[in-house]
Amino acid sequence: xxxxxxxxxAYAEAFEIIEAQAGxxxxxxxxxxxxxxxxxxxxxxxxxxxxxxTNVAPIRKLDFAxxxxxxxxxxxxxxxxxxxxxxxxxxxxxxNGHFDKGLSKTGQLPAGITVGSVAEAVSAxxxxxxxxxxxxxxxxxxxxxxxxxxxxxxxxxxxxxxxLVVEQPIQAVFVTTSESDPTMAFSxxxxxxxxxxxxxxxxxxxxxxxxxFLASSVTxxxxxxxxxxxxxxxxxxxxxxxxxxxxGTTHAQQGRDCNMRSFVATTGGAIVRNDATAWLGGEGSDxxxxxxxxxxxxxxxxxxxxxxxAVPHCTxxxxxxxxxxxxxxxxxxxxxxxxxxxxxxxxxQTNMSLLLSDRALVDSKPQLEIFADDVKCTxxxxxxxxxxxxxxxxxxxxxxxxxxxxxxxFGFCRESLQEIRFTPLKKQLEALVxxxxxxxxxxxxx
Amino acid sequence: xxxxxxxxxxxxxxxxxxxxxxxxxxxxxxxxxxxxxxVEGHEILRGVDLTVNAGEVHxxxxxxxxGKSTLAQVLAGRDTYEVTEGEIIYNGKNLxxxxxxxxxxxxxxxxxxxxxxIPGVNTNYFLRAALNAKRKHHGQDELDAMDFLSLxxxxxxxxxxxxxxxxxxxxEGFSGGEKKRNEIFQMAVLEPTLAILDETDSGLxxxxxxxxxxxxxxxxxxxxxFVLVTHxxxxxxxxxPDFVHVLVRGQIAKSGGKELAxxxxxxxxxxxxxxxxxxx
Lengths: 446, 280
Known about the structure:
The structure holds two protein chains of two kinds. Chain A is built from eleven helices and 20 strands. By secondary structure, chain A is an alpha/beta fold. The longest helix of chain A is centred in the C-terminal third of the chain and has 17 residues, at 401-417. Chain A is globular. Chain B is α/β, with parallel strands linked by helices. The relative contact order of chain B is 0.16.
């Protein structure tokens, strides 16, 4: 057994608690292996290539403890600002990694779909869970992913059977509370969309309370042949701007001729690290991921993408934008691996950052690894300030400086938010952007 | 939503002396005196003098690099240019002391030589904000969405601009002609007192040129003035100016009536350049 250093003791203690709980026999070996891997890797330092620009020393220094079930003091009122109205498929609320039925709202869903908590599904849908849970997101170098696998408690489970098109968006809200001591929560979601099915899932991550917390969340999405999954991951500033450490992975395991459309929105948190990975394992499939980050103060947001084009004729599209004010820091890393046989791959990656202050900083790193010879792969990154020419143009028509600036930032963000197909979420995020801008609410009317 | 687009400065009633001055200069809309401007230490305007009265159309012509666009941009308040000497009086006020947006609310309009593309912001959206900022500044009621829309319909028609373009991002994916017509459309909506057109005619085919000219001609009125910056005489077949000025090396080398444009067309800029070189 690998020797644990002092800094990891809190996690080892947590693992003992999880280990002692009853669970399916197939899961325990997976947890154990993951814990061993985490012990081996440790919380990453900036010497680690994938963590070069994101210093998680604050996470390493804190002694997080697993939050207990219940007694969390979360009321519908407290989470209301973060919940998106319009999720007619239901809103599932998880507090500190546990499903909270009282805070959740059922929706109207077609017959055949299974939606609920992973903890329940482990026995009710044992076969599917054993087949998919922790089987797809398997990056062995990712310490936080290993930690999540070792300590995962609950999360959203969605299964859409063959041919079923679910029109009602399903929402999962993950709340981490920290009232007196630093807490940590581990949620794990599984979405399985069978052949020719379609579903929309919205994840909202937020923290309540005033003490630092660590919120780890991993979502595995299995996109069957000819299926379409729309997935949204929103990380919101909670009651405090900078006490939340969010680490998460969204992994798409894609079959043939399928579409995965993802949007990652980050509007707060001390450190938000989103890994998005996709395995394009069937010909003719598409992975589209758009993102908007808007942070300020001393917040940091890191979007790490890794797409594997394993077979021919797949397409991937990544378009990430960010607005950084004050001392905010942004990191973007986009890796595209085109495997040897993945001919006719068409991959495009764009990262645009807008710096609103002289102190804001962005590191953008595209990485293309291409082993096929007949592919189209492009990437582009821009980092800049508001365009003086555009600002002058608006002002030359009579708009005051502040209003013109706000309008330009809003336009920059809105262009990205246009990609959100779930309109209530788009409107909610637009409103959030407005609120952040000086005098922003005026534009809200239109 | 209070106070977004309104003017930062509270307007005060002009004092007696100031009032008198406004009276005297009522027809004298714009007076440029000995204007020097440079960019990054390089002097481009070297003593421009120009007076424009209400109701007049002035055409500023000249070879490339003579300072025509600089003059237009300085009038609109672009801060890339540093005014090192001289003054500009606009309707009795010191124009150089005003911010670009303040000038716009006071009635100055610049049609850009290269209209800017702005992603995510559509023309209608920002134009309504701009128009309302101006209306508020002049103590008028703000237009609501419905009123604004009917105004837009009417004005878009005058420049034959497809309304659908106006709900797209500003100038994004517009053709060259559409961009220029969008400038004239905005001018028609904002109804400026002093309109400066910076090479609006450049690169237009004859149909677009006619549309743009017609848009300008419709706006001609006794209390509005135009400064047309152009490189080509052709525009002046459609918009007949009262005065033509030739700018050479940052100074007005020659002024005359509309016939000066024809003479220039015949003899070329070299003719004036030569004369101006002899004079200096």
